[in-house]
Amino acid sequence: MGYTLNFSAVWRSFDQLLWGLLLSLELAIGAILIGAVIGLVTAFGLISKSGWARRPAALYVTVIRNLPILVLILFSYFALPQMGVRLGKIESFVATLAIYSGAYLAEVFRAGLLSIPNGLKEAGLAIGLTPMQIRTSIVIPLMFRNVLPSLSSTLISLFKDTSLAAAIAVPELTFEARKINVETFRVVETWIVASCLYVATCTVLAALMRMVERRLVISR
Amino acid sequence: MTKNLLEIQALRKRYGSVEVLKGVDCTMQQGEVISIIGSSGSGKTTMLRCINMLEDFQGGRILIDGEPIGYEERNGVRVRKSEKEIARQRALTGMAFQQFNLFPHMTAASNVMLGLIKVKKMARDEARSVAEKWLERVGLGQRADHYPGQLSGGQQQRVAIARAIAMNPRLMLFDEVTSALDPELVGEVLQVIKDLAADGMSMLLVTHEMRFAFEVSSRVIFMNQGVIGEEGDPKVMFLKPQTERLAEFLKTSSFA
Amino acid sequence: MNEFLAFLDQVWLARFVILRGLGLTVSISLLAIALGSVLGVLVGLALTYGNRPLRFVVRAYTDFIRGTPVLVLVLASFYILSTIGIELNAFQAGVFALAVFCSSHVGEIVRGALQAIPPGQTEAAKAIGLTFSQTFTSVLWPQALRQMLPTWVNTAAEMVKASTLLSVIGVAELLLRTQEIISRNFMSLEFYFLAGLLYFAINYAIERFGKYVERKVSVPS
């Protein structure tokens, strides 16, 4: 084996890793915010009685769920310009990750929407709220509370998926780690530190989301 | 002749091929308290829900203060009114449900305030004071900032009644409001309804509490297989039923 | 129309390259699933029936793997293993990383399925005099298997998707082959689309199969 661990080179570049981590987080949060909007619209499509709304929504979810995310990322960045859609690396990546997460969130939200008791919607109708007001004041806020645990795991897996931005040279954590790996040859140390940063961030994100859940939990 | 508050004309309602209301006619004056009794499946809850357009209906008309509810004639064709218009008409009636249906993510006060703010376009402060007034009236002034999950069933139902009544409806609809309650909590809810009746509120109650119907109602309607089987003064209805069906129903129900 | 014909022409030229890539993608996925599942069952058993220290170690392993992006696992495996003297080529290192990733998922599935079995089942088995290993093989495992098979099939689809990450370390699976083809003919839109179509076909077939398995294994009731 003959490999002795020496972290000093990695520590010297630790700043780079942290900046990369910050960018990873920004990418994930940007993607989930846009993805949540896409997912919400799609979820209403999925539960719609009208086939015109339901079929495109179901097609979108099925297609995206069965494609590797890396193919989507490369497609958006390298192939779309051929169609005249030219985006910067970061914009392209966030948009792709948002569309990707939208499909998963749509299914999460669909289940959440179906779990809202019909009686609550009727109570809203009975005091004279319009269907749209019922959606915004009752159904959506309750749905979000119900799906918080799934939302939290989606955020964490999106955060991990930001590593794929390295494939189009977005300087996030994995990209920086690979750079340090090549520059310093401290292979083992670099990847141990990078993994630990990912694991630690996932743990913190999970804890934060649990705190949010506890604050918003509805006592029954 | 006084103008009718509620007028139901030849109301028909089908679920698929099953006809649950087979032509119901009924009128109601301002200030009346009418109990609707009958076995399950007789159509009494469905009738109540039609008045609030929670159920569509296929035939007949429902008028509140002479205004047709839910449908209008356009070029001789019966069409459903717009959702916005139906929402406005629903606010003419207040409804309390068997399962309370309080919004679990809002406090008692917020539950009451929601309709005041969104439908009546009241300012927040004003809505809050109206909500507090009504919660006070149902004996829950101290619980305004509790969430439904922190209240007992009876308290939740009283909040639900306050939520409906705060909208200042022309008519209150009560759909078996005590059926989901533990027996010891029934009394507090019935007391609230009695107080409202004493204030002159017009009310239509679907209920299984025969004793209560007897005490509080100015009139009782007995529904049987989708039509009104018998109606009249509670004393006559309960003590000297005119039809075989009602006599049988009263025998099997808890009225004693 | 001419462009489409040109595309078909390019596809025909590249047909063996694409097929070889597809073959490699399938091999990577199958190997990762097979190795990962064997390891994953062990992980699941350790998490469910292991003593406290074993459970702690295995839990740390699964949490660490699940908290790390698969791409990082692939890169780490590729760079680290050779550095510390384990000579694996890119293909082997990649399959190893995917198998490790798969094992943590399968481990959780196995644990979940075993813990979902009501304790009354074990008690009933004890009551008729079965030993633990008899109880496990004839009562617990068959029930757990039924419950986890559909999820396990979905994990297979995940592995097919994750196999694309091996393109980053130079394993010439379908995605890398596609990129090579594009670098020659610059038809990025068409060939990424084709790759997407192939991946979709494989995963959609797996998804349908999963639904079929779900119907088949459900206990008649």
Automatic annotation (TrEMBL), chain A:
Pfam families per the UniProt record, alphabetical: BPD_transp_1
Cross-referenced SUPFAM superfamilies: MetI-like
InterPro entries xref list: AA_ABC_transptr_permease_3TM, ArtM/GltK/GlnP/TcyL/YhdX-like, MetI-like, MetI-like_sf
PROSITE patterns per the UniProt record, alphabetical: ABC_TM1
CDD domains hit by this protein: TM_PBP2
Keywords recorded for this protein, A-Z: Amino-acid transport, Cell membrane, Membrane, Transmembrane, Transmembrane helix, Transport
GO molecular function: transmembrane transporter activity
Entry's Gene Ontology cellular component terms: ATP-binding cassette (ABC) transporter complex
Subcellular compartments: Cell inner membrane; Cell membrane
Record-annotated ABC transmembrane type-1 domain positions: 21-209
Transmembrane segments: 20-47, 59-80, 92-113, 191-212
Main location: membrane
One record GO biological process: amino acid transport
Bilayer topology term: Multi-pass membrane protein
Record's function text: Part of the binding-protein-dependent transport system for glutamine; probably responsible for the translocation of the substrate across the membrane.
Family: Belongs to the binding-protein-dependent transport system permease family. HisMQ subfamily.
Name listed for the protein in its UniProt record: Amino acid ABC transporter membrane protein 1, PAAT family
Organism annotation: Nitratireductor aquibiodomus
UniProtKB/TrEMBL annotation, chain B:
InterPro entries in the record: AAA+_ATPase, ABC_ATPase_HisP-typ, ABC_transporter-like_ATP-bd, ABC_transporter-like_CS, MetN_ABC_transporter-like, P-loop_NTPase
Topology within the bilayer: Peripheral membrane protein
Protein localization: Cell membrane
Coiled coil start-end: none
Primary location: membrane
SUPFAM superfamilies: P-loop containing nucleoside triphosphate hydrolases
Name the record gives this protein: Amino acid ABC transporter ATP-binding protein
